[in-house]
Amino acid sequence: MDVIENKYGFSSEKMLKQCKLLHRVMFQKVDVKTGRGRNVKVVKKFKYNCEGDDEIRAKIERSINWYDIP
Fold this sequence. Notes:
Layout: H1 12-26, E1 29-34, E2 41-46, H2 53-67
Antiparallel strand pairs: 1-2
Helix pairs in contact: 1-2
């Protein structure tokens, strides 16, 4: 399974907390205005959106599901 590995010697609870912190950072959105004049529309886009960031976001979500032990 492709998840963030426990390299820090953390327990599952600590890794879950770390993954949720990464989730909060990587899923931030900003308002971007498109168009001119009256045709301006506001679109929300990810604040951090480079090559490969979609794969990182998916990996973070899988890691949260993996370390979230009920």
